[in-house]
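hey m, so remember when u said the tokens were messed up on ur end? i reran from scratch. heres the input so u can diff it against urs
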Amino acid sequence: MSPGISLGTLHSIIFQITILLTHIYLESAIVPNNLHERTVNNMDIMKKEIENRIAIYALISRLMLVEVDEAFLENIEKDETLLSFFPNYRDWDKRKEFSRTELMEQYYNVDFTNLFLMHLVPYESFYTRDDQMIESGGDNPVLELYNELDFRVELDKARVVSADHIGVELEFMYMLCTALQKALDADDKDGICELMQVQRAFLKEHLLEWTPLFLINAKRESRTPLYHDGAELTLEFLLSDFEYLTEKLAQHCNTESDQAEVSEN
């Protein structure tokens, strides 16, 4: 397998449109000359960034939750930028030899079963409990947060045994990002800061507490480039997104001196 996207450049790739806009501003000498204009431009940039964050969380949560279908694969393959996140999948010879249906039946579905149902355990409580049991009841710590923010998990429909499945936790981040997008559209500064704090805290206290180990194992155990690249993308994006939120909170929410406490609030 060739190396994937580096952590240091991931957000630069995702936010390429924002970078392009920045170059346009510089070339046109459109430089904000007062605080109000700088604030407006920062909000415009964050609106573009949240669109991209929503798209990535939607992609990786879908990949980790259920088997892929033709529509999912088509959406990846028709978008060159999206396909660049899956370099080994993009260059895989078997994509030319077999139809999508054949690839799903013979390779992708088998790999999904191997990684998420048989050999690995994609649940937070397995990694955080001393007895390595999956907490499927009401004592699961993520449920309290889900309930507070009106995020409901239908376990049967999602085909998971507990609400702390990696796909569900990624979908929760997707939901938080869509809420942040609404706060940005409404110019609700307090809501923006609160939602970014919740997102950063959830990454620190939940996703980044256990998914690195799971995703490293998933990358190593994967039998197809699709899930190899997907595991690598997910890990690198989560680490990068945590850094991004830390930076934005410091810039916009007066948390520069108390970043360590953000996750506690």
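this time it looks ok to me. Confidence is low (pLDDT under 50) at residues 1-39, 257-265. if urs says something different then somethings off w ur setup not the seq
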